[in-house]
Design a protein that fits this description.
alpha/beta, 12 strands, 6-stranded parallel β-sheet, 2 domains, 14 helices, Rossmann fold
Length: 345
Amino acid sequence: MATERIVIVAPNWLGDAVMALPAVADARRHFAGAHLAVAARGSVAPLFTMVEGIDAVVTLPGRGGVRGVTTWTADAATLASGSFDTALLLPNSFATALAARRAGIPERWGFATDWRGRLLTRAVPAPREPLHQAGYYQALTRAMDIPAGPLHARVRTDAARARDLLREVGSDPDEPFVVFAPGAAYGRAKQWLPERFAELAGLIIRERGWSVLLVGSAADRATCADICARVPPGGTRLNRAIDLSGQTDLASLAGVLSLSHAVVSNDSGAMHLAAAVGAKVVAIFGATSEARTAPLAAGAGAPAAAILTHPVFCRPCMLRECPIDHRCMRGITAEAALGGITNNK
């Protein structure tokens, strides 16, 4: 049957959602005449309103991960209201496939994971070889005979809204500033040390005369406040540390990132979003693997991320909490991060 109304069910985490954008772009090109919608959790759905080529964004009311076992019926009802003929399921969960089937979507495509193969009309084995997460999603679309395009992720921003927000917090949007994203929802093992962020902020303010803006969710407020408290004195009204944690939604965060001189981030959703808006990114990797989740460039001419790691025997461990001394992060210096910011390559 011809595909006329396709829904792509997006990953549940912001970083994964950004890394899914190449596969979404591939599907858009392949099904050029079809209505293409993306269904996503409320936390990431706004991302897809900033992506070209998506005709509709459907917000799923249920919960992701293992919690979806108890909320999949709400997702099914929402998907059913879209009258889709095809569903491309990027999450690997059983509940996602069950919701698509209950929604009455005739074609249901995805990896045969989590004992859900019988719920899919086209189930393919998940790749066994290690891939970048974006390549993993493209492995699914290629298996559906969708040609793969470049591994680029591009997000549009509202710069005017971001400039207004910067003025509201006393920052001049026309003056250079660096954004810090010190949080990481996965766990503290992914986080660079607060004292290193503070040391880097001091170098930026003192040596470059630029401001530093700290961003994050409400859950990151304590981390951002800790960093601000550690920043050495010496800034002025124009060049200082400004804490924006908990004050941005996804759209305004994307705008602020796009206006920055550079973004220094742990492996997090903010890191991926920063690269997707075309910002220069200094990405700090410790517990996780840069081979699997390095940020994608926004396009062929966009700046490549500077990836900072410290080689130790135990990384990447993929743990949420470091059981020893966080040596993979302790070995990354503020001077190395400053070099990533000031490097013009």
